[in-house]
Design a protein that fits this description.
CATH topology of one domain: Alpha-Beta Plaits
CATH class of one domain: Alpha Beta
Order of helices and strands: HHHEEHEEHEEH
Number of helices: 6
Strand content: 5-15%
Structural class: mainly alpha
Number of strands: 6
Oligomer: single chain
Low-confidence stretches: none
Radius of gyration: 24 Å
Strand order of the largest sheet: 1-6
Distance between the termini: 72 Å
């Protein structure tokens, strides 16, 4: 079991940590699990391309040492500010919290946190987003501190979303209980009223 967990971790680390869903899975970890446990194709990582495919094959065969991979001249997202309507869709879909803003307010990209996944581009309802040349980072490198930060930011966002969902569920449950008690009290009051006649 420990050997399988180790292998899974190596497969996850072999992926670029963009969480871009281009492989058709929700994130790099889901894709890695499908490779290891469901015989998924190792050629579905579009950003990693052949370099990732080759490393994954070696990892599966148990014969790989890690190398440093890179996506040359990776681009980052940019918002055309005068066209942004402040819908917050891009904020919700960004896997690494690289977009800030509020409803009906201007949104901004945190350039050094954007990993170039392109999810926001596809989801923008007014096409006010585009991919542009990244002046500060010419290559996306993995494994690296930047790819690890991208992975960590993704998992923090997931944890926050789960916490918010659990909180909403608790509030909804409490509201249902209050409503149930209110109706029960009303029923009992009507019974008493009927019996007192």
């Amino acid at each position: 079991m420990k050997k399988e967990i180790n292998k899974l971790e190596k497969i996850i680390d072999a992926l670029p940590q963009l969480q871009c869903k281009k492989c058709t899975y929700d994130d790099c970890e889901s894709y890695a699990q499908a490779i290891l446990y469901s015989n998924e194709s190792i050629s579905k990582c579009e950003p990693g391309a052949n370099q990732t495919k080759n490393l994954l094959q070696k990892l599966i065969n148990g014969e790989a040492d890690f190398e440093e991979f890179r996506i040359e001249n990776y681009q980052i997202a940019h918002i055309k500010y005068d066209e942004c309507i402040g819908c917050t869709i891009c904020i919700k879909v960004c896997p690494v919290d690289a977009i800030i803003g509020a409803r009906r307010k201007q949104h901004y990209i945190i350039n050094d946190k954007c990993n170039g996944c392109e999810l926001c581009i596809e989801q923008c309802p007014v096409d006010c987003m585009e991919m542009i040349h990244n002046d500060s980072q010419l290559s996306w490198i993995w494994p690296s501190a930047k790819s690890e930060d991208s992975k960590a930011r993704y998992y923090r966002k997931l944890a926050r979303a789960n916490h918010e969902k659990n909180t909403r569920d608790i509030i909804n449950q409490e509201e249902k209980i209050k409503q149930y008690l209110k109706l029960a009290i009303e029923r009992e009051a009507k019974k008493r009223e009927f019996l007192d006649r």
